[in-house]
Amino acid sequence: MNFEKARFNMVEQQIRPWEVLDQDVLDLLMTVKREEFVPAAYRDLAFTEVEIPIGCGQVMLKPVIEGKVLQALRLAKSDSVLEIGTGSGYFAALLAARTEWVRTLESEPELVKLASANLARNGVENVVVVQGDGIGGWAERAPYDVIVVSGGLPFVPQALLEQLKVGGRLFAFVGEAPVMKARLITCESEGRFRTEDIFETVVPMLKNAPQRDSFSF
Q1: CB 144 within 8 A of CB 169
Q2: CA distances, 44 to each of 27, 59, 168 (Å)
Q3: Going by C-beta distance under 8 Å and a sequence separation of 6 or more, which residues neighbour residue 133?
Q4: Does position 81 have pLDDT exceeding 70, yes or no?
Q5: What digits encode the pLDDT tens for the residues 149-204?
């Protein structure tokens, strides 16, 4: 398979038509080799519009969604990043290529090993993979310029909002199937947030996602 041609086609035929027009983002998707983070059995599907299984019941997000998220975040080289849901490590590698450092939390030990190996093999040195449930964020290195939640949430936990710097951006997929909001939340000042829904989609729910309190009458 000609991976370079497939990568070019992914960018030009899938991602750009979905209004991902930021050239830095398109260049990034051409540079970071997606096939290196895909299980060998699915490598020929690395550039298709499917959610690729990576084990533990988890999947990689579709390329168009990855592109939309990257464009919305407006990453800067000085940014500190927290990612929740490491998966194969591919999105962490994308984030790391445009920011100062990334801490990424993954609850599945098997995926921690997979992502760590993938990142090391591809020379990504400014990402640390941490095993743990990321729902409450990771206060140890807070506050962050960017927080990305790579799976679905019924709502954004307050603990994550509290770990954003002023001017920081949080991206999450909020709601439940069949429709979720791809939501960008910006911290405008201490305790004050601006919310923008960028597009609608559906992604797998984050493992251990918090549940809204239910009341019986």
Answers
A1: no
A2: 21, 15, 37
A3: 105, 107, 208
A4: yes
A5: 999 999 999 999 999 999 999 999 999 989 999 999 999 999 999 999 999 999 99
Q: Which amino acid is at 91?
A: F
CB contact at 8 A, 63 and 50: no
Whether residue 214 has pLDDT greater than 50: no
Could you report how far apart the first and last alpha carbons of the chain are, in Å?
Answer: 60
CB neighbours of 41 closer than 8 A, spacing ≥ 6? none
Tokens for 187, please give them: 């911290």
**Would the CA dihedral through 36, 41, 43, 45 be positive or negative?**
negative
Could you tell me where the beta strands, DSSP code E, fall in the chain? 53-55, 58-59, 80-84, 101-106, 127-131, 144-153, 164-176, 179-189, 192-201
Handedness of CA 140, 78, 83, 39 (dihedral sign): negative
Q: What is the dihedral of CA 106, 111, 112, 117, to 10 degrees?
A: -140
Alpha carbon 3 to its chain's center: 23
How many other C-beta atoms can be found within 10 angstroms of the C-beta atom of residue 48? Answer: 15
pTM of the full predicted structure?
A: 0.94
Q: Which of 129, 24, 33 is nearest to 82 (CA)?
A: 129
The span from the CA of 48 to the CA of 14, in Å, is 9
